[in-house]
Amino acid sequence: MGMVFKNPPMGWNSYDYYDTTVNEEQVKANADFMAKHLKECGWEYVVVDIAWYSKEAGQQRDKFQYVPFARLEMDEYSRLLPDVDRFPSSRDGRGFGPLADYVHGLGLKFGIHIMRGIPRCAAYFRTKIKNTDFTANQIAAPDSICFWNPDMYGVNPDADGAQAYYDSLLELYASWGVDFIKCDDICRMDARSSKDEIMMLHRAIEKCGRDVVLSLSPGPAIVDEHDFYFENANMWRITDDFWDHWESLLDMFDRCKNWQDYVKDGGYPDCDMLPLGRLDKGFGQERDTNFTYDEQKTMLTLWTIFRSPLMLGAELTKLDSKTIELLTNKDVYEMFKKARGARETMRNDSFIVWQSESADRKYKAIFNITNKALDVTSDILEEVQQNAKELWSGKEPGEQKEWKIPAHGVLLFAW
User: Fold this and answer.
1) How far apart are CA 8 and CA 182, in angstroms?
2) CA 20 to 30 Å from 271, out of 9, 208, 308, 400?
3) Residue 119: strand, helix, or coil
């Protein structure tokens, strides 16, 4: 899509903790924490996830994640607006402008989640499409409805006014100061119009006069469409929602291997969010991540060496010091930004090895995929030079003769 974004985006997204219920005060608190504790290592995007326009989000959580035909905040041109009760600074048509200004004032960037298509209520009320004589019902595809969220109809790409609708969305988002758009119900192309709607979004971003990351969800993305994704987006999910289960993390090694040849500057296969810290408040069951400390290091190592985008899902203000250390290891995030060409170089029943290199350093990640601690065999360590450093512990090989990896753990060497 372009070389504007030389590195995969790093940031925070409200979904894993707040689900559909995040409000302005909570977004600001997480942005404040990021600016103070994480920004120095490259964490910069603050993304408001799904249902920010819904006036009933979370109100029937025992029955629905997304309330059917919920009341939505919308302008005269069929464009969704933030719910003014949860985002009070959006009153009087200001939208996310004031909140984006706040985030920008911290030296960070602001993003939002959107659903593919046009609000169904816009089609029913036949509201206008900006800068056209068309109305929402004339561009809506009533047979194209997301099976898990009932808020939207797809857009008929052959309809006059379809591109104008997406152009008007990006005109609005650019006026707010949006730097990142996560478009949902589109990446795996469940709907006939998905590919066309991705292209319409891409064209609208190019016209809007602002550098905007386009993130496509949910996965799994289609490997054979790698060129299409790269030409039209900046990141695309290679999995459905990723949560904190070892089986899901183990599965991600296969997904990364399938995509390892298609990671390029400006376009990034996306392993999904990092379920660390405190999660699930919006689901009514606030809890700590299920991942062990070693599994957290394994996840971060795979995501960073593969160069997946990095999006935190936790409530940042509740992160403990050990997790903050993982998120601010400067050697690891230097690898993330500078290394290229990562690939799996070895796999057996006990270990998976990935390697990459930057202009002046080589990196080797050795993952223990068994349920017990293992000594690293000399054949796996053979390329690791004597002056190498293990990046998570900071230890040099000369400091210890034998290396042991905990169950589901990792060693990450640089030399």
Assistant:
1) 14
2) 208
3) strand
Query: What percent of the chain stands above pLDDT 90?
Result: 89
pLDDT tens digits, one per residue of 387-410: 789 999 998 766 666 789 999 999
Q: Which tokens in the block code for residue 392?
A: 């998570």
Report, in angstroms and rounded to the nearest whole number, the Rg of the chain calculated over CA atoms.
22
Give the C-alpha separation, 81 to 103, whole Å: 18
Angstrom distance (rounded) from CA 150 to CA 201: 21
**Tens digits of per-residue pLDDT, 359-377?**
999 999 999 999 999 999 8
Give the least confident one: 68-77, 164-173, 291-300.
68-77
Judge whether residue 1 has pLDDT over 80. no
Q: How far apart are CA 200 and CA 162, in angstroms?
A: 8
Q: What distance in Å separates the CA atoms of residue 51 and residue 15, rounded to the nearest whole number?
A: 10
Residue among 395, 412, 233 at smallest CA distance from 305: 412
CA distance 227 to 350: 34
Q: In whole angstroms, what is the distance from residue 71 CA to residue 397 CA?
A: 61
**Residue 91: phi, psi to the nearest 5?**
-60, 160
Q: What strand order describes the sheet that includes 10-13?
A: 268-270, 235-237, 213-216, 180-184, 109-115, 45-48, 10-13, 310-312
- pLDDT for 170: 98
Question: What pLDDT does 102 receive?
Answer: 98
Among 308, 228, 250, residue whose Cα is nearest residue 274: 308
Q: Residue range 263-271: average pLDDT?
A: 97
- Assigned token pair, 150: 């009932």
CA–centroid distance for 227 within its chain: 20
**Biggest alpha carbon distance in the chain?**
75
Tokens for 262, please give them: 């298609």
pLDDT in tens, 71-130: 899 999 999 999 999 999 999 999 999 999 999 999 999 999 999 999 999 999 999 999
Q: Which amino acid is at 366?
A: I
Contact 164, 132 (CB under 8 A): yes
Q: Say if residue 155's pLDDT is above 70.
A: yes
Amino acid (one-letter) located at 38: L
Nearest to 273 by CA among 236, 247, 310, 248: 310
The length of the chain, given as a count of residues = 415
Residue listed under structure tokens 């996306």 = 270
Q: 158: exposed, middle or buried (C-beta count within 10 Å: 0-12, 13-18, 19+)?
A: exposed
Distance between CA atoms of residues 154 and 143, nearest Å = 8
